[in-house]
Amino acid sequence: MDIKKDILWRVHLSFLVIILMGLVVLGRAVYIQRVQGSYWKSMSNKQHLKYMDIDAERGSIFSEDGNMLSTSIPVFDIYIDFGADGLLEKDGKRFYKNLDSLSISLSSLFKDQSAASYKKMLLSDYKKRLRYYCLKKKISFEEYEALRNFPLVREGRNKSGFIVEVRDNRINPYVLLANRTIGLSRGDTSKNVGLERSYDSVLKGQTGQRLMRYTAGTYVPVDGAEIEPENGKDIVTTINTYIQDVAENALLKMMDQNSSIHGSCIVMEVKTGKIKAIANLGRRPDGTYWEDYNYGFGMRTEPGSVFKLATLTSLLEDKYVDTGSIVDCEGGRKNFYGLNITDAELGVGKITVKEAFAISSNVAFAKMADEYYHNQPTKFYNHLHALRLDQKSGIDIAGVPKPYIKKPTSKYWVKTTIPFMAHGYEELETPLNLLMLYNAVANNGKMMKPYLVNSINDMSGPIETFEPQVLVDKICSDATLGKLKACLRAVITYEHGTGHGLESNIYKIAGKTGTAVSAMDNRGYNKSSKIYQSAFMGYFPADNPVYSIGVVIQNSSESKHVYGASVAGPVFKEVADRLYASKVAKKYFDPNEVPADNDLYKVYGMKKDVNNILEQFKYNETDSAASGLWSTGFLQDKNAKLISDNISESRKKIPDVLGMGLKDAIYLLENMGLKVSASGRGKVVYQSLAENTGISKGETIKLQLN
C-alpha cells in the first residue's frame, strides 16, 4: 500500500512538472508573439529584406551639330526563379511542356551550347528549385526582344519564373572621335575622365531604390516596392563632328608618316572661345595610335619658339623695341653666362625685330629679353602673368594642370633664366594655354575662356546654357596688337619666314612655328640623339579670323622631320584648308573675285536650278525659249546660252542625261519607270541605254559619273 502511494506521488509530481513546463513554453510563446513580435519581425526583415539602389539612366553627350558622342544603351540580365508558383503548379506541367522548345530557342539565340545542354541545365536547376538562377548577363536589346517571345517566357514572369533586370552600358558611338575629352563612364566614377567626369553629377541623375528579399542564398526583387530613379540630363558640347574628324585625320596622317610619339590638335572659335575640335593621339606598342591621354589640355611641356609671341608682347608693350628695331643675331650663336643659345639658321647678322620673329631667331629674343629684363625680372614675369601663362585655362575638364612660369623669387632662378625663357624654355605650358594667347591676338586683344559645353538639356530642351566669357578685355594696346599681327603674318609671307611654305593663295594665314628639344624623363636633354617637339599656333583668315588652331607633336628618334614648319605646320594647313572650304568661304565668298574661265561648260538640269546657278555666279544669260521644265546651258566667258528641253516623265524614249547631276538624272529616269545604277561622283559622263531608244518599264540604266 505504501508502495502504491509512493508511485502515485511520483507520477502526480511528474505530471505537474510537465504541466508547469508546458505552461512556461506556452507563456514564452505568447510573450514572444504578442510582446516581442514587432521586434523579431523587424530583425527578420533586416536579414531578409533590403533596399538596393537602382541606377538612373545616364544622360547622353551630343556634339554641337547634333551627333551623339556618348550614350547609354540598355543591356539585360536574365534570371530564372525555378520556385515560381507558375512553374510548380500541377507538378510542373507548364515547365515540362515547354522545356524542349525553350532549350532549342535558347541554343539558337545565344549559340553558346546545344539544345540538349540547355535542357539538361534547366531540368537540373528546376529540380533544385533555385530561386534566382542567372541565365545570361548583358544581352542586347535585340536578343531581349527575341527572348520575350520564346516558349514559356512569353507567359509572363509569374508563370515562367523569368526575371529581367535592365542596366545601362556606356558607349562612344564614334569610338576615337574626341574620345579622351568626352571620356567614358565606368562603374567606379572616380576613374572617369573628360566630360563624363566633370559633369558626372548632371549626367548620372537621381538613384532609385528597389526592395529585395533574401532567399535561397540570393536577393530577389519584391514586386511593387520600387522608388523610380530620375534620369540624368543630356549635355550638348561645342564639338563639331566634321571639324573633329578633319583635325583627327590630319593629325593621324602626319604622326603615322613621321613615327611621332604623341600629339594634339585644337581648333578654337576665335570670337567665343568654343573648342570645336580637340584631337589627342598617342602611339601604342603595336605602332597604331589611340586617344590615350588628353595632351592638348593636360600635357605641360617646354613650348619652344611659339612662346616668343609672349616675349615680343612684353618688349613691345614696354616700348623697349619696335618691329623695325635692329637686332644683331651674331651669326646665330651666342653664349649667355656660360650656356650657348643657337639658331636653326646660322650666319644671320643684323636684322629687324620683325624679321627675327619671322625666322624665329633664338639668339635675337634671348639678347633682347636679357638686355631689358635681366635687372628687372619681375617686370617680365608680370607680363607673362597678365597673359595668364601661369594660370589654368578654365576649361571645363577636371584634372587640368596649372602651367608653370618660374618666378624671380624661386631658388631655381639663375642668370640664364631670362634668355632661356624668352625663346621657350624653363617654363611649362599646355597647348591650350598657348593657343589662348594666339586666339586673343586674333580676337583683337580679347582673351576668351575656352569651353566645351553649350548647354545642359532635359526632355523639354535646354535647362542651362553657357555663354562665352571674357578672361582679359585687352591683352595689350592696339598699337602693340597691330604689330603682333604683322609679325605673325611675316612668319608666313617673309621670304625666309619659318612658315613661308604654308601660305594659301585663297586666304591668309597668321601664326608661329616652334621647335623645342625635349627633356627625356629624368635624363635631361638628350644631346647625342635629340628628341624634338614640333608646334604651330595660328589663326585664319588673318584679315577676319574665324578659327585659331594649335598643333603640338612630340617626335621620336625615328622621325624624319622635326621642325614645326614641316611637322605641325602641314597639319594646321590641312585643317585650315578644309575648314575654309566648308565653313568659312561660304560666309565671305564673292563671285566677282572668281577669275575668268575661257573653257566651254555644259550644264543640264531643271531649268529653275540652272537659272539659280547662273544668277549666283552672275552670268550674262540668253534663253532661247521660256517654256519647259528642263534646260541645257552652255557657259563660257561669263556668258550663258540656255536651250529649253521639253523632256517630260511621260515620254516614251530614253533621254540624254549626259552632263546632269545624279539627283536630276535619278528623278527623271525613275519617273519614266527605269531603274538607275550609278557609280562615281560629279556629273553623268556615260549612260548604258542610248538616247531616243525605247523604254521598257523596270529596265536598268547604268550611269557613270566623273
What does this structure look like?
The structure is a single chain. The longest helix has 34 residues, at 2-35. Mean pLDDT is 83; it is low at 589-595. Helix 10 packs antiparallel against helix 19. The protein has 21 helices and 31 strands. With 706 residues, the chain is an alpha+beta fold.
Average of the residue pLDDT scores = 83
CATH homology group of the largest domain? DD-peptidase/beta-lactamase superfamily
Under CATH, the topology of the largest domain can be stated as Beta-lactamase
Contiguous low-pLDDT stretches (5 residues minimum) are: 589-595
Helicity range: 25-40%
Shape: flat
Number of structurally distinct domains: 3
Known CATH architecture of the largest domain: 3-Layer(aba) Sandwich
CA-atom Rg in angstroms: 38 Å
Could you give the count of β-strands? 31
Treating each run of at least 4 consecutive H or I residues as one helix, how many helices? 21
**How does the helix and strand content classify structurally?**
alpha+beta
The CATH class of the largest domain is identified as Alpha Beta
| Intertermini distance | 133 Å
Give a quick summary of the entry.
With 706 residues, this protein is an alpha+beta fold. It has 3 domains: 52-237, Penicillin-binding protein 2a (Domain 2), CATH 3.90.1310.10; 242-588, 3-Layer(aba) Sandwich (Beta-lactamase), CATH 3.40.710; 601-705, Trypsin Inhibitor V, Chain A (2-Layer Sandwich), CATH 3.30.10.
